[in-house]
Amino acid sequence: MKRYKKYISPYLSAFILGPLLMLTEVAGEIMLPKLMSLIINNGVANRDTRYIVMMGLLMVLAAGVMAVGGIGGAYFSAKASISFTSDLRQDLFAKVQKFSFKNIDDFSTGSLVTRLTNDIQQIQNVIMMGLRMMFRAPGMFVGALIMAFLMNAKLAAVILVVIPLLTLAIALILKTAYPRFQMMQKTIDHLNNGIQEALINVRVIKSFVRENHEEEKFQKANDNLKQASMGALKIVIATMPVMTLAMNVTTLAVVWYGGNIIIAGNMQVGDLTAFTTYIVQILMSLMMLSMVFLQSSRAMACIKRVNEVMDVDIDLTDDEAKQPERKVTEGRVEFRDVCFAYDGQKDSLVLEHLNFTAEPGQTIGIIGSTGSGKTSLVQLIPRLYDVTSGQVLVDGVDVRDYSLRHLRNGVGMVLQKNVLFSGSIEENLRWGDEEASMEELKSAADSAQADGFVTAFPNGYDTEMGQGGANVSGGQKQRLCIARALLKKPKILILDDSTSAVDTATEAKIRECFRTALKDTTKFIIAQRIGSVENADQIMVLDDGKILAIGTHEELLKSCEAYQEIYYSQKDREKEVSA
After folding, report:
1. Widest CA span in the chain
2. Under a CB-based contact definition with an 8 Å cutoff, are residues 4 and 123 in contact?
C-alpha cells in the first residue's frame, strides 16, 4: 500500500474531512431516537405542548446539522476518491507509455483498456463508499449499541446473539466473492478485446460478409460476461435478504420481549420505540459494513490487476546508458554478430549472427521472404527491442548507451502497419516536428508525394482524418506516414515495406527525393519489389534470420542465387501482367 500514499497526500484534507463530517450524521442519528422517546414519555404522556415543541425544534436543528455534515462529507469523499483515481489513472497510462514492444506483447489491448477504465472506476467507487462509511457505520454501531445498553441491558443482549451470526455469514460471503469478481474482470477484458478487434477491422468484416460470424463471436463473449457477472452478483443479491431477515427477526424479538417489559411496568413506550430504532441502526451499520467489504473484494481484484501493470519491469530503459546526452549526428549503423529472439532465449532466434555496416547517407535495401526477419532487424536500430547477443551501434556507440529519447529522435521509422490518428492531416504530420513551419510541413509532404492529393481536399491540411485514416486510401496513408517521418529530419530513415500500396511511378518520385533531399540520411528500405531497392548502395538478402548476401543489384544478380530467383520471378510476373 506504500505505492498509494502519494495519491493520498495531495488530498489529505479531503480524506480527513470527508469521514469526520459524516460523524455529524452519526451524532444526529444517535440523538434523534432519544429525543423522540422524551417527546413520547414526557410531552405526549403529560400533554405538554411546550415540551413537545422544544424537543421538536431540537430535532429539526439536529436534522439540519446532519444535512450539512452529510453534504460536506459526501463532497469531500467524492473529491478525495475522484482525485485519487485520476492521478492513479494518469500514472498507469504513463507506465503503459513506457512499455517496450516486449512489455506490450504481455498484455492484450483490451485488458489494458479495462484496467485503465473499469478497474480504476471500481477502485474509485469503493474509496468513495469507504470514506463515507469509515466512521459512519462503526460510529452508528458503537453509539446505538451504547444507547441500547444504557436504556435496557437485558433487552440489548438480544443483539449480542445476532452479531456473531451475521459476522460469520458476511465472512463466508466475502470469501466466495473475491474469485468471482476476479473472473468477472477477466471476462470484461475478453469482451473489450473482441469489441476493439471488430470495430477496427469493420471494413474487412463487411468485405467478407462475416457480420453474422462476428455477432455470434460477440454473443459468446457477452454471454460469458453475463454468466460471470451473475455469478459474482449472486453474492451481492444474497447479502441483502440475509441482513434483512436478521433485522426483522431481531426487531420482532425486541418488540415481543420489550412489550412484556412494558406490560410489567419496567419500561416506558417511548423507550421501546427508541430502543427499536437503535437495534435497526445497529443492524443497518452492519449491513453498510458488509456492502463496503463486498465492494472492497471486487476493488481488491481490480487493485491486483492495476498492480500487475504498475509492477511490470520495463526491459528497455536509460538506467544503464553511458552517454545519455549524446545525439545521433551522422547516421552510421553497424551490426556486430547480432542475434535476436523475441523471448530472449537463444534456442528461438529469429536473427542469427548478423554483421554489416551502413555508412552515413547510404541506402540499404532489405529483401527476403515473409518471416525472414526483415522487420525484426530494423526494429533493433531505434531499440524497439534489445539484441539477445551482439551489438547494434549508431555512430560507433552501442544503442543501449543512448537515451531512448535521443536515439529515437535521430531515427525516423515508417512501420509496416501505417497508423494515423484522429485529428487533422496537419496535426498528424506534426508528430514529426511540432515546431515545424507550414512551409517545412508542405515540403515534407511534397517529398513524399502527398502534397498534391492533400491540397485537392476542400479543407487541405485541415482535413479531419477518420479513425485510423479511414477516409484516405492505402497509398495516401503510406505517403502521409512517410511525410510525417521526413518532417522529423532524421539521420536514419527506416521504411518497412512502406510503399507497397503506391504505384511504381509515384514510388520512383519518392526514391528520387530520397537521393536528393535526403542525401545525408542513412536509409533502410524493406521492400517486396526489387524495383524498389535496385538502386540502393547495398542490398541485403535475408533468409530465415541469416544474411545470405550483401551487395549492389548488379553484384547480387551475378553471385546470389536467391536474389536471382526473386528478380526473375518478378520480371516474369511483370511480363504476364503487361501481356
Report:
1. 120
2. no
Question: 470: helix, coil or strand?
Answer: coil
CA distance 282 to 290: 13
Average pLDDT, stretch 296-305? 83
Q: Which is higher by pLDDT, 348 or 152? A: 348
Write phi, then psi, for 434 (nearest 5 degrees).
-65, -30
Q: How far is CA 208 from the centre of its chain?
A: 31
Per-residue pLDDT of 484-498, as tens digits, reads: 988 888 999 999 888
> Within the chain, how many helices (H) and strands (E) appear?
21, 12
Angle made by CA atoms 132, 138, 139, in degrees to the nearest 5: 85
Phi and psi at residue 127, in whole multiples of 5°?
-65, -45
Is the pLDDT confidence value at 168 over 70?
Answer: yes
153: its cell numbers: 441491558
The C-alpha cell of 283 is what? 443492524
Predicted local distance difference test score (pLDDT) of residue 493 = 93
Angle at the Cα of 84 (from 80 to 88), degrees rounded to 5?
175
- The closest of 551, 556, 579, 576 to 567, measured between CA atoms, is 556
Residue 189 has, within 13 A of its CA and on its CB side, a CA count of: 17
Q: Are 227 and 279 in contact (CB under 8 A)?
A: no
